Amino acid sequence: EGFLALRDERLAVHRLSDGLGRPLVMLHDAGGSNADLELPPNRPVIALDLPGHGLSSEGWTGPIDWPETVRAALDALNLPDAEITGTGAASVLASALTGIPAQPGRTLGLPDPVPSLAPEWDGTHLLRAFRIAAWERLFDPWHRRDPAHRVDRPADLAATHARAVSLLLAHRRWSDLEAWAASRF
Fold it and tell me: Residue 119 and residue 125: Cα distance in Å, rounded?
């Protein structure tokens, strides 16, 4: 674990697992961090907290510059042959980096605008964040709340709380990444 200094900002880098073979660089969804990623077994995995997310610094520009930022990080980490994957909106970022088209449907495609998580005087942003975090555990994708999209996942209050906090910490970048990804699809 550590940080890269890129363009006067700090990008958090997490070595999540060791193993043999080609390294996998994982990019988390909008509003998330490396803590949200499900790791494949027996392979070297490195995760980057995207700008303005997780432990990365907040002062970054918007998502339009993120492919360049991730490329610079891969160069600094000497990972020219790494496989890159992303979840949610970050799948479009991975697509921009690899040239492999992102898959529609579950990969991306929010039918409604992403709800704002900007602080509000009455605390309703806190309720929205916890509601989204709970829906993410119950539905895939979270915005399709019907029986066909329900997933069998046990309740985990600590994980729901951690995800809600992650969403709140990245609120300024969450909508930016979703909007950028939607414009690229």
Answer: 6
The number of distinct structural domains making up the chain is: 2
pLDDT per residue over 71-129, tens digit each? Answer: 899 999 998 888 888 887 787 788 778 775 555 433 333 334 467 788 889 999 899 98
Coil, strand or helix at 131: helix
Does one domain contain both 132 and 81?
Answer: no
Cα 157 to Cα 164: distance, rounded to the nearest angstrom: 10
Residues in the chain: 185
Q: What is the CATH number of the domain that holds 38?
A: 3.40.50.12270
The owner of tokens 């690899």 is 98
Local structure of residue 63 (DSSP, 8 states): G
Nearest CA among 185, 184, 183, 181 for reference residue 88: 181
pTM: 0.65
For residue 60, give Cα distances in angstroms to 53, 64, 99, 113, 170.
10, 11, 24, 23, 12
Assess whether 65 and 141 both reside in one domain.
no
C-alpha to C-alpha distance for 81 and 130, rounded to whole angstroms: 38
159-163 LR contacts (CB < 8 Å, sep 24+): 160/130, 160/133, 160/134, 161/130, 161/133, 162/35, 163/32, 163/36, 163/133, 163/136, 163/137
